[in-house]
Specification:
CATH superfamily of one domain: Alpha/Beta hydrolase fold, catalytic domain
Number of strands: 39
Number of helices: 14
CATH topology of one domain: Rossmann fold
Structural class: alpha+beta
CATH class of one domain: Alpha Beta
Shape: globular
């Protein structure tokens, strides 16, 4: 059974209608919210030209770009593979395949030095033939045969996708097969001839977040307008999604999730003639189906059948029994994490359940077996210590799984696990991208304003002088229960560490490093603790004379981009570089921009006076002040980002311009919520970032005689 990513994770509550539409007469930059408007795009192109003129003219830029592109297009990258129908599939981009190819090979070939790949779909050829700007967004194949797949194709990288049915044996789109036009939609195979589809069926049938709330059953050969409605949520919901789980023994269950907030949902089982709600908590994440058991992770305590299961735990309950009687469930505990532990993922093979467990922000993978009596037992898979581990794919036909292993100085490797035996061996390894022989990793702690200990990783030269002279890049995210664990980055290693930089990863609250409570501590009006945690790590780095404000830079994207904006405005004295990536920055308008209404459960809403007051107090756009000396930030975004939207970055830069505050702004025209749609665009963005960081934090290059 492949790991199920429940679609409710991108959801959030809707707005209070009157507050949502209240005009903001003080917003002088509203015109930049016109996404593709002539005036707005003219401003973008002008800003891009100014920024590239500065950064691309830097004597370091050419070498940085050359190295970034070389690594991004290298043939010896790991081809991460997915088990589908007894073979392995991989999506691959390089200099010869700008948009990419979907290809397959056998497990035996994959384990060889030079796998023999067969191209299944060439996206460059398809885009040229159809005169389309296709970007690959993945495939979902119908179990158990896995012969037919639904391909998700995006226009330029947007979250909105076009869905088309593809036949694997013939490597061709299915004539008169399932085809759904562009939209933010959720589609699941109920059977090989039936889909469950949540989408905008009629114009306007979307929530305030821009997601569907109506699910219908679509049979093969039916036009869309003949699909049969099986569940209707409410326009005030965040979204409604459908998903089907099939385990290795042939059990199948289709479900619907109704998103009430980003973190709260109602879960329903789809029966032949109706849809029934499960009696489970609202903070409840369905993970997988295994041995006829629905597997779930709790993000709040759950009392059922006379026992209380703690938040953060993984539990199971019988799918057939739940289908018959959804009100009286009898869960069984699989795993209750300790105080410094957090479940990072759940997936299954044919006969084994795999659970990722982070212990003090370091990865483990545990195998759970279920006895005939229903009892669960556990054993670990032997993997390296002090690294991140994650199950990347599992095989529903066997007990094989791929596990990715990586550390800051440990190149990523793919391990083939035999979950039945509890063993794993390396099958692919990334060649080192930088010289790590002189580098070391430490895990330290800073003390936040309220006394909470905040762990962080420090990557630095073994002989680093603690004299404050070290150019240091501090990264974090701090939201949505996203855990930051050790990872291997050729870009950071080659373009930063090798050039004398120090790298820091901070595990601040808002993330999921220590379970749901670590995240919940920074929700809504309590969010200032997240920003205090980040500042505390910076202050600790300075106190230990690792760096100084002159040499300290910070970086973060999306919600982490908001973090960067807050730190720029709250502590301009602590940094000399602020790399703000695809950010939220206008927290009084975020609900009105792109999918912003999705995140009210995380940030709060301007419709509530106390939450509005807090949002205004931290909103970077509204907290730029005249007379303050700010470090010059790099603010970058993408035009095609239909998740956060480029409007935040545009408005922030425009206000800085009016206030005569130095800044650099860049907008990638393609790429969705990321740094570009292809390797050239991503390498260019990387080069702009690391050139900016070097200019701000490192000494100028000495002229050659």
């Amino acid at each position: 059974m492949k790991k199920l990513v429940v679609p409710m994770l991108f959801l959030a509550v809707s707005l209070h209608a009157q507050a949502a539409t209240r005009p903001d007469t003080t917003d002088a930059y509203r015109w930049l919210e016109d996404l593709n408007g002539e005036r707005a795009m003219s401003w973008v192109k002008s800003e891009n030209a100014k920024t590239t003129a500065v950064l691309e003219a830097d004597p370091r830029y050419a070498d940085i770009y050359r190295e970034a592109f070389r690594m991004a297009s290298a043939k010896d990258r790991i081809p991460y593979a997915t088990f589908i129908g007894g073979e392995l599939y991989n999506f691959w981009q390089d200099s010869a395949h700008k948009r990419g190819i979907w290809r397959r090979t056998s497990l035996e070939s994959y384990r060889s030095t030079d796998p023999a790949w067969v191209t299944v779909l060439d996206l460059d050829t398809l885009a040229a033939r159809e005169k389309a700007n296709w970007v690959w967004k993945g495939a979902t194949c119908a179990l158990p045969a896995e012969r037919r797949c639904l391909l998700r194709l995006s226009d330029g990288g947007e979250d909105a996708v076009t869905i088309r049915e593809f036949d694997l044996p013939s490597s061709a789109f299915v004539t008169n097969g399932f085809s759904l036009p562009k939209g933010k939609q959720n589609v699941s195979w109920a059977s090989e001839d039936t889909l469950l589809v949540a989408r905008e069926w009629k114009p306007g049938e979307l929530t305030a977040s821009g997601y569907p709330y109506i699910t219908k059953r679509l049979a093969r050969g039916q036009p869309l307008d003949a699909a049969v409605e099986i569940y209707r949520g409410d326009p005030k919901d965040v979204a409604v999604s459908a998903f089907t789980m099939t385990d290795g023994k042939g059990h199948r269950v289709s479900m619907i999730g109704r998103g009430i907030s980003f973190f709260e949902s109602e879960n329903f089982i789809v029966r032949p003639n109706d849809v029934v709600r499960l009696n489970v908590p609202k903070k409840f994440e369905i993970q997988d189906l295994f041995d006829g058991q629905i597997i779930a992770r709790l993000t709040q305590d759950w009392t059922a059948a006379g026992r209380t299961y703690k938040s953060g735990s993984v539990v199971s309950f019988d799918a057939a029994a739940a289908t018959k009687d959804p009100q009286n469930l009898a869960p069984t505990l699989i795993l209750e994490p300790g105080p410094r532990e957090s479940v990072s993922g759940v997936s299954s093979t044919k006969n084994q359940l795999l659970v990722g467990l982070d212990q003090n922000v370091k990865g483990r993978v545990l195998i759970f077996s279920r006895s005939p009596s229903g009892a669960w037992s556990r054993r670990p898979i032997a993997l390296p210590d002090n690294v991140s581990t994650g199950v990347t794919s599992t095989d529903a036909r066997s007990d094989r799984a791929f596990i990715n292993v990586a550390g800051f100085l440990t190149p990523s490797s793919v391990w083939l696990a035999d979950a039945a035996q509890g063993t794993a061996t390396t099958v692919r390894s990334l060649p080192p991208r930088f010289d790590a022989s002189s580098q070391v990793v430490e895990q330290l702690e800073a003390t936040s304003k309220d006394g909470t200990k905040i762990p962080y990783f420090l990557v630095h030269p073994r002989n680093m002088k603690r004299d404050g002279s070290n150019p240091t890049l501090l990264y974090s995210y701090g939201g949505f229960e996203v855990s930051l664990t050790p990872f291997y980055s050729g870009s950071i290693g080659k373009l930063w560490l090798e050039r004398g930089g120090v790298y820091v990863l901070a595990n601040i609250r808002g993330g999921g490093e220590f379970g749901p409570a670590w995240h919940d501590a920074g929700l809504k009006t309590h969010r200032q603790v997240i920003y205090d945690d980040f500042a505390a790590v910076a202050q600790d780095l300075i106190a230990q004379k690792i760096t100084t404000p002159r040499r300290l830079g910070i970086q973060g994207g999306s919600n982490g981009g908001l973090l960067m904006g807050v730190e720029l405005t709250q502590h301009p004295e602590l940094w000399n570089a602020v790399d703000i990536q695809v950010p939220l920055l206008d927290m009084l308008r975020f609900e009105q921009i792109a999918a912003g209404a999705s995140w009210v459960g995380e940030y709060g809403s301007v419709s509530k006076p106390d939450e509005r007051a807090f949002l205004e107090s931290i909103s970077p756009l509204h907290n730029l002040k005249p007379g303050v000396t700010y470090p010059m930030p790099l603010v970058w975004t993408t035009t095609k980002d239909d998740r956060v939207g480029p409007q935040h970055a545009r408005k922030f830069a425009a206000k800085m311009a009016d206030m005569k505050i130095p800044y650099l702004f860049y907008e990638v025209i393609e790429g969705g919520h990321g740094s570009g749609a292809n390797i050239e665009q991503r390498a260019h963005t990387d080069a702009l970032e690391f050139t900016y960081l070097a200019r701000q934090l490192m000494d100028p290059l000495k002229a050659t005689p």
